[in-house]
Amino acid sequence: MTTIRTDHLVYAVPDLAAAVERIAADWGVRPAIGGQHPNGTHNALLALGPHTYLEIIAPDPAQPDPPLGRNFGIDERPGETRLVTWAATVSDLDATHAAARAKGYDAGAVMDGSRLRPDGMKIEWRSTRLVGWPPAGDGLVPFLIEWGDGTPHPSSDSPQGCSLVGLRAEHPEPEPIRRMLAALGLDVPVTVGSAPALYAVIDTPKGRMTLA
Q: 80-138 pLDDT, tens per residue?
């Protein structure tokens, strides 16, 4: 049987360096620079447990603007800081994708991804991607990821000391979101809210924080 669990949270910010300094001051752990993506972004990482991490992602000023725009709708809402979506890791991406489709939810196309770490090591993965932003589920339903053979999980060498305690969502119409999550075998609380929103509760050396 395939397994599925929270892999990482995607936290979009306008300025990576400023976000790293703020989190370091507020949480007591400094995120480490992760590297560049070929689509015009760069990131910093912070472990949230043995198999989970926080990805802080921002436009990379060292790269030109990509012709099709940056991932996660970053270009559509410039200047905003928000927990934009999350990823679920699976042991068999193709099987999970097919099972969800049989239950009425199409997780999107499966695509190859990669980035270079600062030490030059290439990190590779396969993940699902829905065209356009926001996707079905408004970012509250995770994209799926399967890490490449020989690729160390980013949580293993990211700064330690924080842990993900819980994840919840709000949406004006929560029932369709619940059905999408159920098709993936996930049980994330979704309540009525004025706008789509994702909330992560994180224990840090400086106390419990809520990231939204």
A: 999 999 999 999 999 999 999 999 999 999 999 888 888 888 889 999 987 778 888 99
Cα torsion 171, 173, 177, 178 to 10°: value is 100
Q: What does the chain look like in DSSP terms, one character per residue?
A: ---EEEEEEEEE-S-HHHHHHHHHHHHS-PPEEEEE-TTSEEEEEEESSTT-EEEEEEE-TTSPPPTT--GGGTTTSTT--EEEEEEEEES-HHHHHHHHHHTT----EEEEEEEE-TTSPEEEEEEEE-SSSS-TTTTSSPEEEEEPTTPPPGGGGSPPS-EEEEEEEEESSHHHHHHHHHHTT----EEE-SS-EEEEEEEETTEEEEE-
CA–CA separation, 129 and 120 (whole Å): 26
What the chain holds in terms of domains, given with CATH numbers, is 4-159 (3.10.180.10)
- What angle (nearest 5°) sits at the alpha carbon of residue 74, between those of residues 65 and 101? 115
42-86: pLDDT as tens digits = 999 999 999 999 999 999 999 999 988 898 988 888 899 999 999
Is the pTM higher than 0.85? The answer reads yes
Tell how strand 4-12 and strand 53-59 pair up. parallel
- Residue 99 neighbours by CB distance under 10 Å: 17
